[in-house]
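Protein 1 of 2
SEQ + STRUCT:
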Amino acid sequence: MTAAYTYLDAEITSDAADIIGNRPARVPEHQASLWANYEVGSGVLEGLSVGAGARYIGASFGDSANTVNVPGHMLVDAALRYKKNGWQAALNVSNLFDKTYYSTCYEAGSNKDLSCIYGEGPVIKGSLSMKF
């Protein structure tokens, strides 16, 4: 099992006077992750491993004025792997439950129009490798 947590107390210290002391845009205060993996050590399924985990990205601001709130989100990922005789086949799925979320928001252009970008839906990746 692997766990991680980040607390980041970021602050703008040098810029236009009206944003000094604000949190920088697109910088969450909290991030965390948890991952568990189980590998079969013997028997007919020896070499098979299954893993699952969650990633949390906390709320942030989409602008340096701290007026545009970007909500935090949690994503669940999973993995399946099989190793035998130097070969490995793996299947990984990110955002397993198709969570809809904003990956970021920002102000753009001279009018400071707000633009938000949705995060990716489920992404499935497969691989086959050999060690020699």
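Protein 2 of 2
SEQ + STRUCT:
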Amino acid sequence: MLNNMVKDLQDGLLPEVIAEWYDIIINKARDLAPPHLKDKINVEQDELLPMRFKLDLSKRAVPFVVTAIEESMQSMPYSTRLYFEKVKELIIKEFRNG
């Protein structure tokens, strides 16, 4: 039972799982955003370091991305949810400081 719990936690942090959730979040954010901001919401996965993702967002698009993250969290595995909670926190911090 403990092994299954650990495996579930590890699986939620696999690069392909994180990438899939980024796709879901980016698509949802683009759906929420007005037409002139849709192309200002992007994410890029590093080829050499697959756990590294670069979010490319217009400051005006940040609220739509944050909303998309919040709306997606309940469907995520626990460890993935923790990852995106931190991503959301960093986005908001950068938005306020930038």
